[in-house]
Design goal:
Blueprint lengths: L2 H32 L5 E6 L4 H17 L4 E6 L6 H7 L4 E3 L2 H13 L7 H7 L27 H13 L8 E5 L3 H8 L17 H9 L3 E4 L12 E2 L5 H10 L6 E4 L6 H5 L4 E6 L12 E5 L1 E4 L2 E2 L2 H5 L1 E4 L19 E3 L6 H6 L2 E4 L3 H15 L7 H11 L12 E3 L1 H6 L1 H4 L4
Parallel strand pairs: 1-2, 2-3, 4-5, 4-7, 5-6, 7-8, 8-9, 9-15
Antiparallel strand pairs: 10-11, 10-14, 12-13
C-alpha cells in the first residue's frame, strides 16, 4: 500500500470515528428531550414532495396498525408540497413543525449511520422510529388492506361540489390520467432539477387510450400539474383555483376506478385509498417503491446503441456512480458514489447519458393494451397463458427485495410478450 492510499485510509477511519461520536451525542440528547414520554415515538414525515409525503403516510399508517400502544408524533419538513394533504393527514397523525427536533432527527436518520450500525438497539431503547431504515424494521409487514384512509363527510361534500363544477356525470365511473412532463419540473424546481427528467413522458401517446375509455362511457379526468392541450378529450381541472386543485389532486383518488399514470408522486394517492393503478412509462426504480399496490406495471425500454437491454442487465449491480443525483428511498445519495448499484436505481439523465443509455417511452398500442389488461385484472377476467406466467416470474425474480409485494402487481403481459426475445435473451 503506497503512502497516499495509507493516508486516505487513516483519514477515512478518523472520519468514521468522528461520525460515530457525533451520532452518540445526538442519541443521548434525543433521549434527554424525550425520556419522560417512553410511549411516544417521534419521526420525520417528509412533506416536501408528493412522493415522499404520500409514501410516508402509507408507511406510518401500516406501522401504527401494528404498534397501537405507542403514540407517533411526526415532525414535518419546512416545505409542504400540498397544504390540503397536510390538513387531511392531521386527521390521522399528530404532525408538528419543530425545527430543533427536526434537525436532531435528521442527524440520527440520515447523516451518521452509513450502515445499519446499532439501529435495532437504538429503536428498542429510544422513542425513535426510523423511517429511513425500514428494511431492517418491518420487512413484509406492510398491510395495504388496513390503511383505512377515508375522506370525512365535509371533504366528500367538497369533492362532489368540485366535480359538479367540472360537469362530471355521476352515473359514470371515473378514470384518472396523469403524466409528468417539463411543466411540472419547471413549475416546482425551475432549472434546478434538469437531471431528474427520466420520469417525464409525452401526453400524446395516451390519445388512443383516452378515446377507448370515452367509448366505454367513462369520465376521463386529467389530474396533476399541466398545461391544457387542445382537443385532448379529457376533463381538465385547470378551471379550479390553486387551493381547489391541491385538494382535488389527492381526494379524487378516493373514488377512482383506475388511475393511469406515469412515474410521479401523486399516483400514490390511489394507494392511499387502496385503489388500483396502471403505471405506464415506468422506470425500474419504481419496482423498489413502497406505494404500488393493485398495480399493472408497464416499464420504459432501456436501450444502449439502439439495442434493448435485458432485465438482468438492468437489475445487476454493476454501475459505479460518478454523480450523486439519483433518486432513492434513503435521502443520502452520496453514500452510493463509487459503489456498484443496479442500473435500475439511476434516475439521473446525466448518469444515463454517460452510460449511453436511452429510455424509450411506451407506444400508444402498449398503453392501450396495458389499459385493457388492467380492467381484465380488476374484474378477475385476465387469463395468463403458461408463457405469460413464466415471463412474470422471470421478470419479478430479478427485483426481489423485502418491501415490494409482487402478489398484487402484474407486469403487462402484452409488453413482456412483445419484447420477450430482447428482455430475456441472456437466460
Amino acid at each position: 500500500m503506497n503512502s497516499y492510499n495509507f493516508l486516505k485510509l487513516i483519514i477515512t477511519q478518523l472520519l468514521t470515528i468522528k461520525n460515530f461520536i457525533i451520532s452518540l451525542f445526538y442519541i443521548i440528547y434525543f433521549n434527554y428531550l424525550t425520556y419522560k414520554n417512553k410511549y411516544i415515538k417521534y419521526s420525520i414525515i417528509r412533506t416536501n414532495t408528493y412522493g415522499n409525503f404520500l409514501t410516508d403516510l402509507i408507511y406510518y399508517k401500516s406501522l401504527t396498525n401494528n404498534f397501537n400502544k405507542f403514540k407517533l408524533i411526526l415532525i414535518r419538513d419546512e416545505v409542504v408540497i400540498n397544504s390540503k394533504l397536510l390538513d387531511f393527514a392531521r386527521e390521522y397523525f399528530i404532525i408538528k413543525q419543530d425545527d430543533k427536533l427536526l434537525k436532531i432527527l435528521r442527524k440520527i436518520h440520515l447523516e451518521y449511520f452509513p450502515e445499519k450500525i446499532f439501529i435495532k438497539n437504538i429503536l428498542k431503547s429510544n422513542n425513535l422510529q426510523n423511517r429511513q431504515f425500514r428494511n431492517f424494521l418491518i420487512p413484509k409487514q406492510l398491510n395495504f388492506n388496513k390503511l383505512n384512509y377515508f375522506l370525512n363527510q365535509n371533504d366528500k361534500k367538497k369533492l362532489n361540489l368540485l366535480l359538479e363544477r367540472l360537469n362530471i356525470n355521476f352515473q359514470k365511473e371515473i378514470i384518472l390520467i396523469c403524466n409528468r412532463d417539463n411543466y411540472y419540473t419547471k413549475s416546482y424546481f425551475g432549472n434546478k432539477k434538469k437531471y431528474d427528467n427520466t420520469r417525464n413522458s409525452s401526453f400524446v401517446n395516451l390519445d388512443k387510450t383516452i378515446k377507448y375509455l370515452l367509448s366505454k362511457e367513462y369520465n376521463v379526468i386529467r389530474v396533476g400539474d399541466y398545461e391544457d392541450i387542445e382537443n385532448s378529450n379529457v376533463i381538465s381541472i385547470n378551471s379550479l383555483s390553486s387551493s381547489e386543485k391541491k385538494f382535488l389532486n389527492f381526494a379524487i383518488h378516493s373514488i377512482s376506478t383506475l388511475a393511469i399514470s406515469g412515474s410521479n408522486g401523486n399516483i400514490f394517492s390511489s394507494t392511499l385509498f387502496n385503489n388500483p393503478i396502471l403505471l405506464i412509462n415506468a422506470t425500474y426504480l419504481d419496482l423498489y417503491n413502497i406505494g404500488f399496490h393493485k398495480c399493472v406495471f408497464l416499464p420504459k425500454l432501456y436501450k444502449r446503441n439502439n439495442k434493448i437491454l435485458t432485465i438482468s442487465e438492468i437489475a445487476k449491480k454493476n454501475i459505479i456512480l460518478k454523480n450523486p443525483f439519483i433518486c432513492l428511498e434513503i435521502n443520502s445519495e452520496k453514500k452510493f458514489l463509487g459503489k456498484k448499484i443496479p442500473l435500475a436505481f439511476i434516475e439521473s439523465q446525466y448518469e444515463l447519458s454517460n452510460l449511453k443509455i436511452v429510455l424509450e417511452e411506451n407506444s400508444d398500442d402498449e398503453i392501450l393494451n396495458a389499459t385493457k389488461e388492467a380492467f381484465e385484472s380488476l374484474n378477475g377476467l385476465i387469463k395468463l397463458s403458461k408463457k405469460d406466467q413464466i415471463n412474470q416470474e422471470r421478470f419479478k425474480e430479478q427485483f426481489q427485495i423485502n418491501n415490494f409485494n409482487y402478489k398484487d402487481v402484474l407486469i403487462s403481459p402484452y409488453f413482456l410478450n412483445k419484447y420477450d426475445k430482447e428482455l430475456f435473451r441472456d437466460e
